[in-house]
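Today's session is about reading a structure prediction critically. Students often jump straight to the picture, but the first step is always the sequence itself: look for stretches that repeat, for charged clusters, for runs of hydrophobic residues. Only then move on to the predicted structure, which in these notes is written as discrete structure tokens rather than atom positions. Here is the chain we will use throughout the hour.
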Amino acid sequence: MAITQDLSGTAILIVATDGFEQSELMEPKTQLESAGADVTIASLSQEPIKGWDEKDWGDSVDVDMLIENVDPNEFDALVLPGGQINPDLLRVEDKVVTLVRDFAATGKPVAAICHAPWLLIEAGLVNGKQVTGYKSIRTDLTNAGANVEDSPVVVDGNIITSRCPDDLDAFCAQIAEMVYERLPAEA
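Below is the predicted structure for this chain, in token form.
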């Protein structure tokens, strides 16, 4: 399931830190850029961040901006890659939780995959929502008031969630569809 929409002129924000699941950052970045979106990576410091690739450290990725400098109004969607380490480190950072909450309040798509729904829990965004996530965090989601589905991609309002790297094509396609639907109609 490839992205079919032209996302030229859109800006997508990916928030991550060391220990992001390699494929869950790189695949959305690649697919969204291929569709014409400008993708920005924000993190806790300007240093490159290192991915986790299945069973060992993966590649490093350059950081474009600091989280505290992000203005949600400058972006069309927020993507939160998973991995176990990355969202666990980010969810204890008040500036990250505030950014996720503020971004969600704009009504723009907020997409979280794998363990990244932990950030949605911390931001108070899952209570009463239909969501999914990696199997080991489903009890956390339920305890936070979410209705958990075992589906490749689940959408509730502006929240998009997916389970694991196997769901990346559906995850990316859903992000693209929601961003495209929000584009102004051409005159």
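Discussion point for the tutorial: The first strand starts at residue 11 and ends at 15.
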